[in-house]
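Any chance you'd type out a single protein's sequence alongside its tokenized fold?
>
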Amino acid sequence: MGYIEELRKIIGHRCISLTGSVVIITDTDGRILLQKRTHPKGRWGLPGGLMELGESCEETAVREVREETSLEVRNLELFGVYSGKDYFCTGETGDEWYVIVIAYTCKDFSGQPKISDGESEELRWFLPSEIPESLANSHRQIILDYVKKQTE
């Protein structure tokens, strides 16, 4: 059982703050790797997830990318930190939380994207102009900011 599951046993559904990391992985063609998530169902998002006790933000990013895509990422660059009222989440179980998202970019990776856990329905590369509309709410602004920065 992970840290968050243990914490939820103690506090129930009460609202808490959680920290997570995501990675904007781009290939040599400038495409962004997105995953179609199982939660929220059918929404696209960046590979990433919540921090475990004792991890750094960067360690969280590397671990989550490996777990969700089978890719090994290196040389992460901090892109931004996202938080506030727009990052309120409610889980299917009624759990509530505000997430603080640390976003990284990465062009240095090895392996081939492959679903390796139950959190993804599909992995696919998208050109910035082809980003799907059905994005996970907590990832929408991150992806839009990245695409905007690429066109400046």
Q: What stands out?
A: The first strand starts at residue 16 and ends at 25. The chain has three helices and ten strands. Strands lie at 16-25, 32-37, 44-45, 48-50, 72-74, 77-82, 88-90, 96-106, 108-110, 120-126.
